[in-house]
Amino acid sequence: MSVDTESPDSESPDSDGDRLPPARLAYGRHTWKEVSFLLANLPFALVGFAYAVVSVLLGVGLAVTVIGLPLLALGLAGARGMGRAERARARALLGVQVEEPSPLPRRHGLLPWLWTALKDPVAWRAVLYGFIRLPWGVVTFAVTLVGLIVLWPVLPFIARGLANADRAMVRGLLSPSDELERRVAELESDRGVVVDTAAADLRRIERDLHDGAQARLVALAMGLGLAKEKLLEDPEAAAAMVDEAHGEVKLALQELRDLARGIHPAVLTDRGLDAALSAVAARCTVPVRVTVDLDRRPAEAIEGIAYFTVSELLQNVSKHARARSASVEVWRRDDRLLLQVRDDGRGGARLDGGTGMAGLADRLGAVDGVFVLDSPQGGPTTVTAELPWRERAGA
Fold first, then answer.
1. Which domain holds residue 132?
2. Under 8 Å CB-to-CB from 178, ≥6 apart: which residues?
3. What is the pLDDT of residues 219-231, one digit of tens each?
4. DSSP code, position 347
5. In this model, does residue 382 exceed pLDDT 90?
6. Which of 263, 293, 311 is the endpoint of a domain?
């Protein structure tokens, strides 16, 4: 049997993907990997075929019962796992560079999860892969075994041809079908983030109204009622109570203004990002330099996201950074709106550090944005965010 005479460089897949050196009358590293893959096809195919038959037939057969569809959904989830194992085997032994499909979006509740699992195209293609692999596994095992015993001089060519068919099946059935499928999964997941964020904002507004302005107005009404009762019998006490109520009115108005600013500040609507971010910077506990270089205003939704992103980042600077100064820059590059917030504080900020960075990253990701955090220990901290540029209505 020939020894491996191929150079290491000639056997390495090139930068274009999984291209291999041509097969020849020598048992090189790639040949042995292909032979190993083909011989292992039979046991893997037996397991995959048995799993596909049992999980699908059992789920479909019991579909008329309560447990049928959940069993089928669980079986499809397992098929996804088997597809992942087959992709890993193909990458290790055949050099097939296939991306992992997007994970299923999370669903709360049995019915949404069940529907998502049952219509998962990745899982159904993995099931189909398991069905067709059994006869192919028998063929490849038999041909490769006979080749090792009888046709070993030409086995590298036989192994390459059979392995190429395996590569085609992995790419066709176990890789993401197209970019659209991946994008749909991402958008479905992002939609869940947007819904959760909106619900959290509504709960926050309700809580702030209930615990703040509403409670203060209730107390104000009670105070004015008592003042009305004392107006004739004790005018001085009534005047003092009215004066106290006047102070409560001022506080309630300030709380309502703060709440309205948290929903959508009037200065942003009237004057745009430059003025709105300057107002936010003025409330920061450290000096902030604001630079906004935009020749026109973006769409209202994008403008609002940019404003609240900078606002929350500057709140983090005030609360956690221990900085002496900070800067905010906003500009447009092609079809992207970019913003950068930098401070000279202690650094060490992380997406999982409890400062709301992860929530900001999720919110930007939900609108096809990008959030990049650079915060080494000792500082400085730089946050760069990108948002898609959308033209303002009527611009």
1. 13-177
2. none
3. 778 878 887 777 7
4. B
5. yes
6. 263
